[in-house]
Amino acid sequence: MRKLLAGLIATLTTLVLGAVAVDFGAAIYAEYRLARSVRTAAHLPFDPWASILSFPFIAQAAHHRYKEVEIRATGVDQAITGKVSLEATLHGVDLRDSSWLIGPDATLPVGKLESRIIIDSRHVGDVMGIKDLQVEAPPRESNDATDNTTESGISSGDGLVFTGTPAAAGFDKRVSVSVDLTLDGPNQTTLVFTPTNVLTGPGTADQAVPQDHTAAVLAAFTSQVPGQKLPFGLTPTSAGVRGSDIIVEGITEGVTITLDGFRQS
Predict the structure, then answer these.
(1) Cis bond leading into 202, ω under 30°?
(2) Which residue, of 34, 61, 76, 81, is most buried by count of CB atoms within 10 Å of its CB?
(3) Band of pLDDT at residue 56, cut at 50, 70 and 90
C-alpha cells in the first residue's frame, strides 16, 4: 500500500511539475513575441522587457484576457534629454480580436492603462548644465511611512531636492536647492523646474550661498524640458521623483491601444 501511495504521489508530482513547466514555457514564449512586436511597432532598436503576470498563464490565454501586462524600455534615445526610459502597465487586456501571441499590428482594448516616462538625474543634469546633479524626493516624503507617494512610488512634485554644482552661476561648490516640478504645454508634456530656495542642514549639501550669488544659483536650477510624451499618448496625472529619477505618470481606464503608440517621440 505504501509503495502504491508513494508511486501515486510521484506520478502526481511529475504531472504537476510538467504542467507548471509547460505553462511557464508558454508564458516565456508569449512574452518574447510581445517584446518583438513592441520593438517592431514602436521602432525600438532593441527588445523591451515584457512580462505577462499572474498564474496560470494558459488559463488566461484560453479566456482571451491577460490580467496584467508590463512593458519597459530603458535607455531609449530622445532628442531633448538624450535618454529616457518608458514603462506601461496594462490591466485587463482583451485578446478577443487578437491572439495570445500579440502581434505588432494588434488592437488591444485595455481595462486600465498606466504609462510612465522616466528621466534619471544624470540626463536632467545634462539639460540643466549641472553635470553632478542628484535628484531626491522631498525630505518629508522620503522619511515618512505615510507619505504622499502614488501607488507607483512616485513622490509629489513640490519641494524636490536638487543637489549639484551650479557652475553657470560662477559657484564651484555643491549646493542643495528646493525645486517644484510642474507640467505645462500641449497635453502637459513640458516639465517645468522652478527652484524656490537654497537648502541647508541634514540630508542636503549643507552649503550656504552668499546673498549676492543666490539669484544666479537658483537660476542655474531653473529649466524647462519639453516633448516628454507618455507611452500611448496618455495625459499625465502625476509627476515627481522615485529614487533618483524624475517620473511622469498617466493613468486612464477603458481605452483601446496599438503597440506603435508605446514610443511617442
Answers:
(1) no
(2) 34
(3) confident
DSSP at 158: T
Range of the domain at 166: 2-261
What residue type is 176 in one-letter code?
S
Q: How far apart are the first and last CA of the chain?
A: 68
Check pLDDT > 60 for residue 20.
no
Pairing of strands 82-94, 223-225: unpaired
Residue 130 contacts residue 236 (beta carbons within 8 Å): no
Report the pLDDT value the prediction gives residue 239, as an integer from 0 to 100. Answer: 95
Buried b (16+ CB within 10 A) or exposed e, 237-252: ebbbbbeebbbbbbbe
Q: What is the pTM of this model?
A: 0.88
Grid cell of 4 as nine digits: 502504491
pLDDT in tens, 175-191: 999 999 999 998 899 99
Domain count for the chain: 1
Write the CB contacts of 158 (distance below 8 Å, at least 6 apart in sequence). Answer: 138, 180, 181
Amino acid at 225: V
How far apart (Å, rounded) are the C-alpha atoms in residues 193 and 188? 14
Residue type, 37: S
Mean pLDDT of 101-108: 95
